[in-house]
Amino acid sequence: MDIITHLRVYDLEETLLASGYAMIEDYEESTVSTELASIKKNTQDSHPYRRALKLLRAPLNSGHCSFAKGIIVNMDLTFTNKAWIEFQRYHFADIITGMSTMHRISQFDLDAAFNDYTDPVIINRLKELQSTYQQTKSKEDYLRLLYSTPSGLKMTGRITTNYLQLMNIWSQRHHHRLPEWRQFCDELRTKLPFFEEFLIANGQLTLD
After folding, report:
1. pTM over 0.70
2. Is 144 inside any structural domain?
3. Residues 140 and 163 in one domain
4. Cβ-Cβ contacts under 8 Å for 8 (sequence gap 6 or more)
5. Are 48 and 71 in contact (CB under 8 A)?
6. Is residue 127 part of a domain?
7. Can you name the residues that pair with 79 across neighbouring β-strands?
8. Contact of 78 with 5, CB cutoff 8 Å
């Protein structure tokens, strides 16, 4: 199962072009529009693309890579509760909306809701608590069900972030102990345009 789905990337070419604004003396909208149309025809052969790779040779926190914040990424992300807690540490990756245990834990199909590492004994106990609440509708039984939910529960949410933040996440998580983080990082490389090339330029990745 893919972790990243319904992926959208915005303003990639516009941001590559804007990465050179520090070196211009005058802004002409018509010139920008013409250059942008040229970049979109063949991005990898364009001067802005080559300039971006040069800028990315600097450390991510140097300021030279800040243009990558302009490449906006929206995606649906399916993580366990454990990984979602870690994801929320990133300040420039916002959760737009997502599935909710608070609203729907009593209705989840618990046989299909967990990853393979969740102990079946724990799942069966949770099913008992879910059944009890469905019968009693007791607030106490609901809280017992809610707080007993293990961290292997898979939840899908939609996030918005950018290439700079994702490159930072990749640097910290591509060898992470949780397999879902490693899969997420692999999918970033294969699904985001030029992301692998950016990692290579930044010195984070070397292809054999």
Report:
1. yes
2. yes
3. no
4. 73, 74, 75
5. no
6. yes
7. 155
8. yes
